[in-house]
Write a structure and sequence with these properties.
Blueprint: E1 2-9, H1 24-40, E2 47-53, H2 58-63, H3 80-91, E3 105-106, E4 109-111, H4 114-120, E5 125-129, H5 134-141, E6 149-152, H6 159-164, E7 173-177, E8 180-185, H7 191-219, E9 224-225, H8 231-234, E10 239-245, H9 250-265, E11 272-278, H10 285-290, E12 298-303, E13 306-311, H11 317-325
Parallel strand pairs: 1-2, 4-6, 5-6, 9-11, 10-11
Antiparallel strand pairs: 3-4, 5-7, 7-8, 10-12, 12-13
C-alpha cells in the first residue's frame, strides 16, 4: 500500500474539512480532496488519500519541510483530472477521463438537471433560481465571468435538491458556494439590483480569501523548531540555517527578533529553511553535543544534510541574509 499524498493544514487557521472554513486556499482544495478520497480510498486499492494536522504533529511536518498550508507533496495543478493523471503515472493505474455531463450555457444561463446540479456545485460559485426574462439578462451580464454561474432549476422536476436547499416558495434566489447555501436574496428583482448583489458577493468572497491568505502568511511559522528527533530528515534536502540556543542566554534573547525577521525574509525561497534548536531540552542534548555546540547562540548552515559552515559574522539581518544567499546555488535563487 502506498500513501501517495499528504494534505497538511494548520489547525483552526487552515482547518479540517468539517470544522472551519477560514483558510481560502484550503477551502478551495477541500471539494477536490473529498472527491479523491471518496473515489480512491477503497479497502483493496493501491492509494490512500490522507490529511495531517500540523498543529498536532509538528515533528512530522518539520521532517517533511511543510512551511505553508495546504501542502501537497506534489508540484503541479491541483484539479481533479491532474491529480488522477499523477496516480496513473506514478502507480501505473489506468486513467480514463470521465465525460461529466456539464450543462451547456445559452447566453450565460445554465439549466440544471439533478445530476448536472450535483456535479457542478461541488466546486464554484452559483446563483440559482427560476425567473424569466430578467434572469436570462442577468446570466448574459456574467457569461464571461468564469468565477460564477447563473443557473436555474425546476423544483417540480427535481424535488429532492430543492428540499435539500430548503426551497419553500417560488421563485427562490440562492447564492451557493462550494455546494453550500451562503445567502438567500430577498431584495428587488430588477436586473440592476440582482447584478449588484452578485458583484457584492463576488467581491466579499475575494476579499475574504485575500484576508485569509494574509492571515496565513502572518501566522505561519517563519522559523521552524527542530529537535533531535526530526532534524535529520528536516535538513536532508535543501539549505537549512540553524540557530542553536538556550532560553536563558542574553545574546540569544537579543538575536531572537532579528532571527525571526531573517525567517520572514526567506519565506517563499524554495529549498531554504530557517530553523532553531533549544539545546537545553533533553531531546536535543545529544544533538547539540554531537554538533559540538559550546556557546550560545551558535549558527550553522547545512546543505542537503551536510554541515557547510558555521557563521561567525555580524548578527545583523543583512549580514546573515547575505551569508545564506552567497551559499545558494543558482537554481535555489
Amino acid at each position: 500500500m502506498k500513501l501517495l499524498c499528504i494534505f497538511s493544514y494548520l489547525g483552526n487557521k487552515c482547518p479540517s474539512l468539517t470544522v472551519n472554513e477560514r483558510c481560502g486556499h484550503c477551502k478551495k482544495l477541500h471539494p477536490t480532496w473529498d472527491q479523491l478520497g471518496s473515489k480512491y480510498n477503497k479497502e483493496s486499492g493501491p492509494i490512500r488519500i490522507g490529511k495531517l494536522d500540523c498543529t498536532q504533529y509538528t515533528s512530522v511536518c518539520a521532517e517533511q519541510q511543510v512551511n505553508g498550508y495546504p501542502t501537497l507533496k506534489y508540484r503541479g495543478p491541483r484539479d481533479l483530472a491532474s491529480l488522477e493523471k499523477l496516480f496513473s503515472e506514478q502507480l501505473g493505474i489506468e486513467y480514463e477521463e470521465e465525460d461529466v455531463e456539464v450543462p451547456q450555457a445559452v447566453s450565460g444561463l445554465v439549466e440544471f438537471t439533478d445530476t448536472s446540479f450535483q456535479e457542478s456545485v461541488v466546486i464554484g460559485k452559483f446563483f440559482h433560481k427560476r425567473l424569466e426574462p430578467t434572469w436570462a439578462s442577468l446570466a448574459k451580464s456574467f457569461e464571461h465571468d468564469k468565477s460564477v454561474i447563473i443557473g436555474k432549476l425546476d423544483c417540480t422536476k427535481y424535488k429532492t435538491i430543492c428540499t435539500e436547499y430548503e426551497v419553500k416558495g417560488y421563485p427562490t434566489l440562492l447564492w451557493i458556494e462550494d455546494g453550500k447555501k451562503i445567502a438567500k436574496y430577498s431584495g428587488d428583482r430588477s436586473h440592476e439590483d440582482l447584478k449588484r448583489f452578485v458583484v457584492e458577493q463576488l467581491g466579499e468572497r475575494r476579499d475574504e480569501d485575500d484576508d485569509n491568505e494574509k492571515e496565513r502568511e502572518r501566522t505561519a511559522p517563519t522559523v521552524v523548531t527542530l529537535t533531535g528527533e526530526n532534524i535529520e530528515n528536516a535538513i536532508s534536502i535543501g539549505t537549512t540555517f540553524i540557530k542553536y540556543y538556550a532560553p536563558w542566554c542574553g545574546h540569544c534573547k537579543r538575536l531572537a527578533p532579528i532571527f525571526e525577521e531573517l525567517g520572514k525574509k526567506f519565506v517563499g525561497f524554495e529549498g531554504v529553511t530557517i530553523a532553531k534548536v533549544d539545546c537545553t531540552q533533553e531531546v536535543n542534548r545529544d544533538l547539540c553535543s554531537n554538533e559540538k555546540i559550546n556557546g550560545f547562540p551558535t549558527l550553522i548552515l547545512y546543505k542537503d544534510g551536510e554541515k557547510q559552515a558555521e557563521y561567525n559574522g555580524d548578527r545583523s539581518l543583512s549580514d546573515m541574509a547575505e551569508f545564506i544567499t552567497s551559499r545558494l546555488t543558482h537554481d535555489e535563487l
